[in-house]
Design goal:
The structure holds two protein chains of two kinds. Chain A has a two-stranded antiparallel ribbon. In chain A, α18 runs antiparallel to α20 and α27 runs antiparallel to α28. Chain A contains 40 helices and two strands. Chain A is mostly helical. By secondary structure, chain B is mainly α. Chain B has a single domain, classed as Helix Hairpins. Helices cover 64% and strands 0% of the residues of chain B. Chain B contains three helices and no strands. Chain B is elongated and about 55 Å long. Chain B starts with a helix and ends in a 13-residue tail after the last helix. Classes of the chains: A mainly alpha, B mainly alpha.
Chain lengths: 960, 113
């Protein structure tokens, strides 16, 4: 198996599993297989991934590292890569192994809830992200998967989304871990900037460079913040108890073995690069110790079984983080053993907690008790896992605590560390006692709680890790086992670590400390009730929820202040923006200093009639624009606006820019039609009210002045910029000579503007028609939506009546003198459009003009015949279909051309290839097809606009 | 002529913005169209001003001054896009008027809640 397949196969397998899980969302498929069976099927995928990940372990033990990498954006030095060494393997194996158990367990847990396929999909997605996180080979891949775990865990925690508590818990976890993720990204960017690479291979070998960098403290703080948030370190630990509102399978998976270990994974991974400094030592030791104490202390007072487990997890995470900070062989040995032991016993205990909840209906310690009679197998499992958690022999947990204590006794370290560790161990023992003894032994505390044993298949999943907690130490299997752990520790530590799984090392100091911890723990457990009562009296002052709520409240407050500034009137914002833009222009450009010497006022030299015409168009444009201001009725103002557009077209003709002028004319008319249609749709009363209010209202005078000042200011700026553009720049743009020289040979077009549109910048045009099509679709969708929500009646492509009212758009009958030309005009427009497209390459005009011209003919039909009749008479005019065909044709045409020219949207003359005899100037080329595509899309979009706005409202139809 | 052109474009811009700031939704739409036209004219001035012949390949080499085709192509795109944008804005204005029963922008003040 090559490195590539070896590394990609597990991820792809899990993604396949996700896809299969998602397939069960289909009702018929879902109904065919009960959720428990689905779980067995889905569990195969992580199992296969586990086996694939297990295969290279012998090679890993010899120190081999598996790598895979692809260039993503080579110009930015960005790659995606995977990296698989012993340290990754330790986590990858835990993730997939526990993953198998969890998927099976979830099937049982959700037995009877067929919609739990959603949970399985989230779980498998999370598993993929988590696996990708520990196998990521560079900063970027790591970050992507890191965020992936945040998002998927959010989905898992909020699985019972109808429960507000679940949503709050999920949000809190996303808020904290997501915030940490951003800090992490910033930190890792520093790391890759200093080390000069985003790859682990480079980063891990440039430790000296990183440690001596001036950014060391910043990057350490940022990276550590991200890792601490993810791994629930003090004081960011508060999200973990909140996340207990997740379904138990999710808690068992995320919060024991996987997600919370991501921070541990990352810090230890970076140890060779960032570690071995006093900052590293103090940061990790202090935070780790605080977390240990906080988790162990708060765990003891929990009533909820899962809450208790959550806090003991926090304590354990603190221990692990603290161990990473200690730079010696012994600590890294304790680290790997601690990780494995904790993953095994904590997942088993979580699953047992889920079983208790499932079978008794409560997780409240004060109501449970004496469950061993009803649930003997669960008791056995809980006992095994609980002993391991308590750190009692002969369990794996004992070994973990032994090695931990041995590590804290290292001569370099202060005795305070050993004391804290002993105290935490004692509290964890007491918590294990609460979980096992107070739940399963003694007498039932609440007679209303009825218990019965869970089905065997449900017990299987917790039984396996619980049993492993015993088996690993009792039967210290093949040498590979300890060799593997040693290799993992060595990968994180940076040099060789020895690990043995033997339980007893003789009477020594760690054993003594262990005995002290056990004794102290027993005492604490014995006095558990008075202690808990005392803790309750002490109150919630020690929780940091207040900090979190404080931060959230501050953000809300800030938001409130910000919204005060936003009074919701867009016009005010616009004025502020305009004035700001104007001030920025003057601030940075300074007051215009160039002289107006060469320019004479008004400069009417009239060398020929062209200049006179230019002056005329200028007058028309200005005059009609002013008229829109002065005219009182909206309809007249719209007409003036249209006149201004036509004046602009004259200006274009004189430029001379015939293509632009043509498009300007047709677009101007289409805009006019659409604007009038909208005007007709607005209720008359509203229109009149808005119209009257224009100048009349006295109180608006200051506002009028404000608007006038803003408009004149921006007008002055634009005039100045235009003047500069006209007087002080070279004539042709840089690329224009190229276009002029090559248009004929490369595109076969005499019209250079047309050549630019359909060939040189064809991609622009493709995007342009897509945008135009989207605008049409948007209008259609918006008005459909309005029709549905505001009681307007349904629009769109509905069935139309066969009898016509023969009424025009305003509900008035159109004269026959209008109807006859309208009939004749549509075919003429069609022919005109086709001619435009055929010869657009050498003459003004193009597919766009053709589309709009046909659209205008259709618009005339709407006006003359009314909506209903037009729709019935023109069944081929199906807007969405036209858009779809047009855009698809444009893209397919572009792709086919790549076969001939290697350029997307290049130019091929098919007519010439086949040798068709065609009239001069007409080519069946890819450009011609592109023109047709443009025409279709534009026609479709224009039809949508006309359909939507030309559709009769209720009152019109009432009169019809 | 340069001065006059610049002044015209500036005036159009000012009128467009002023109309855009009106409370009557139809006037706002008119303002938008005027602004679009003004911007297109402004784009035109970035090309060769006062060309004598349109940009056709058949004219090259004769020694005449031809208009710069690049800004023209860009304007062509701009015209189309602004037309689509105008239609979309109009649909939105219609919906706002249907939803709030008014054609006065200032009555539409609870968008933020």
């Amino acid at each position: 198996m090559t490195q590539t397949t070896l590394l990609l196969a597990p991820l792809i397998t899990l993604l396949l599993g996700t896809a299969v899980g998602f397939a069960f969302s289909h009702p018929t498929l879902n109904a065919r297989l009960p959720i428990t069976r689905q779980a067995w099927l889905l569990a195969l995928f992580p199992l296969i991934a586990f086996i694939i990940l297990l295969l290279p372990v012998p090679a890993l033990n010899e120190g081999q590292i598996f790598l895979w990498r692809i260039e993503w954006l080579p110009s930015f030095g960005l790659q995606l890569g995977l990296y698989y060494d012993s340290w990754s393997a330790l986590f990858a194996l835990i993730i997939t192994f526990i993953g198998v158990l969890i998927v099976i367990y979830a099937g049982q847990y959700f037995n009877g809830q067929q919609d739990a396929w959603r949970f399985q999909v989230y779980t498998l997605l999370f598993m993929t992200s988590m696996l990708g996180l520990v196998m990521a080979g560079d900063v970027l891949t790591l970050f992507i998967f890191w965020e992936g775990t945040s998002i998927t865990s959010y989905l898992l925690i909020a699985y019972k989304y109808k429960d507000p508590e679940a949503r709050a818990g999920a949000f809190r976890s996303l808020f904290i871990t997501g915030g940490g993720g951003i800090a992490l990204l910033a930190g890792l960017l520093f790391v890759s900037y200093v080390s000069g690479s985003t790859q682990w291979t480079e980063i891990l070998s440039s430790g000296d460079q990183l440690r001596s960098s001036e950014f060391y403290n910043v990057m350490l703080a940022l990276v550590a913040f991200g890792a601490f948030a993810k791994s629930a370190q003090f004081p960011a630990h508060i999200w973990l108890p909140g996340a207990m509102s997740a379904p138990t399978p999710a808690s068992a998976y995320l919060h024991s073995a996987t997600m919370v270990k991501a921070g541990i994974y990352l810090m230890a991974r970076l140890n060779p690069a960032l570690g071995f400094t006093s900052q590293w030592f103090f940061l990790l030791t202090v935070v780790g110790m605080a977390t240990m104490l906080c988790g162990a202390y708060l765990g003891l007072k929990q009533k909820d079984l899962k809450g208790l487990l959550a806090y003991s997890t926090i304590a354990q995470l603190g221990i692990l983080m603290m161990l990473i900070g200690q730079e010696d062989e012994e600590s890294y040995k304790a680290l790997v053993i601690g990780i494995v032991a904790h993953a095994l016993y904590k997942s088993a205990l979580f699953m047992v907690a889920g079983i208790i909840d499932h079978e008794t209906g409560t997780r409240d310690i004060t109501r449970l008790g004496g469950l061993r009679r009803a649930m003997p197998v669960s008791f056995a499992i809980a006992l095994l896992a609980g002993l391991s958690m308590a750190g009692l022999p002969p369990m794996f947990g004992f070994l973990a605590k032994e090695t931990l204590l041995a590590a804290t006794l290292h001569p370099n370290l202060q005795p305070v560390l050993a004391a804290v560790s002993v105290f935490t161990g004692a509290l964890m023992l007491a918590q294990a006692g609460l979980f096992v003894i107070d739940t399963f032994l003694g007498q039932p505390r609440d007679p209303t709680v009825h218990a019965h044993e869970a089905p065997q298949t449900m017990l299987l999943s917790p039984a396996i890790p619980a049993a492993l907690s015993l088996i690993i130490v009792l039967l210290p299997g093949p040498k590979e086992e300890s060799a593997f752990l040693a290799a993992a520790a060595a990968a994180a530590f940076g040099s060789k670590v020895k690990v043995s799984l033997a339980l007893f090392h003789g009477l020594n100091a760690p054993l003594l400390l262990s005995i002290i911890a056990i004794t102290l723990g027993s005492v604490i457990w014995y006095f558990r009730w008075p202690l808990r009562a005392w803790q309750d009296r002490l109150g919630a002052t020690l929780t940091f929820n207040r900090l979190y709520t404080g931060v959230l409240a501050a953000m809300d407050k800030g938001g409130f202040v910000a919204t005060r500034l936003q009074q919701g009137k867009l016009r005010t914002y616009l004025v502020i923006m305009i004035l700001a833009a104007v001030s920025l222009v003057f601030f940075f450009m300074g007051w215009p200093t160039y002289s107006l010497a060469g320019l004479t006022w008004p400069g009417l030299d009239f060398p020929g009639e062209m200049a006179l015409l230019r002056f005329f168009s200028l007058l028309v444009v200005t005059g009609s624009a002013l008229a829109t201001l002065v005219l009182n009725r909206d309809f007249y103002a719209i007409l003036a606006m249209s006149a201004m557009g036509l004046g602009t077209a004259v200006w274009f003709v004189l430029e001379p820019a015939p293509d632009v002028a043509l498009v300007q004319i047709v677009v101007d008319i289409l805009s006019l039609v659409i604007l009038v249609l909208t005007l007709a749709k607005l209720p008359r009363a509203q229109r009149l009210k808005a119209q009257r209010m224009r100048w009349a209202e006295r109180p608006s005078r200051p506002l009028l002045l404000r608007d006038a000042i803003a408009s004149i200011a921006i007008g002055c700026v634009v005039a100045l910029i235009t003047l500069t553009a006209l007087t002080s720049r070279p004539r042709l743009s840089q690329v224009t000579p190229y276009y002029i020289a090559n248009a004929k040979e490369e595109t076969g077009a005499a019209d250079i503007v047309g050549a630019i549109i359909v060939d040189f910048r064809a991609m622009d045009t493709l995007i342009e028609i897509t945008v135009f099509s989207l605008a049409g679709l948007g209008v259609f969708t918006l008005l459909n939506y309005a029709a549905r929500t505001h009681g307007d009646h349904a629009q769109g492509e509905k069935k139309v009546r066969r009898t016509f009212s023969t009424l025009g758009i305003g509900g008035r009958r159109a004269s026959p003198f209008l109807r006859a030309p309208a009939y004749a005009l549509l075919p003429v427009a069609l022919v005109l459009g086709i001619v435009q497209m055929m010869f657009g390459h050498d003459q003004p005009g193009d597919g766009f003009t053709a589309g709009v011209v046909i659209g205008l003919a259709v618009a005339l039909w709407y006006v003359v015949f009314g909506y209903t009749e037009t729709r019935a008479r023109l069944p081929w005019l199906r807007a969405s279909a036209l858009i779809a065909v047009g855009v698809l044709l444009a893209i397919v045409n572009g792709i086919i051309v790549t076969l001939f020219t290697d350029h997307f949207l290049g130019n091929v003359d098919y007519g010439e290839l086949v040798g068709l005899p065609l009239p001069g100037g007409f080519h069946i080329s890819s450009s011609f097809l592109f023109e047709i595509a443009i025409c279709l899309a534009v026609l479709g979009s224009a039809t949508h606009m006309l359909n939507a706005l030309g559709h009769p409202g209720e009152e019109e139809e009432g009169t019809a | 002529m340069e001065l006059l052109t610049a002044l015209t474009i500036g005036t159009l811009f000012a009128i467009g913005v002023f109309q855009l700031l009106r409370r009557n939704v139809i006037r706002s739409a008119i303002g938008l169209v005027i602004l679009a036209n003004a911007v297109n004219l402004f784009l035109l001035t970035t090309g060769a001003y006062l060309g004598e012949d349109p940009a056709y390949a058949t004219y090259t080499g004769v020694g005449q001054r031809i208009a710069d085709p690049l800004p023209q192509a860009l304007i062509l795109t701009a015209i189309v896009i602004s037309m689509g944008g105008t239609a979309f804005v109009l649909a939105m204005l219609y919906i706002i008027s249907a939803r709030y029963q008014t054609a006065n922008m200032d009555d539409v003040d609870n968008l933020k809640n």
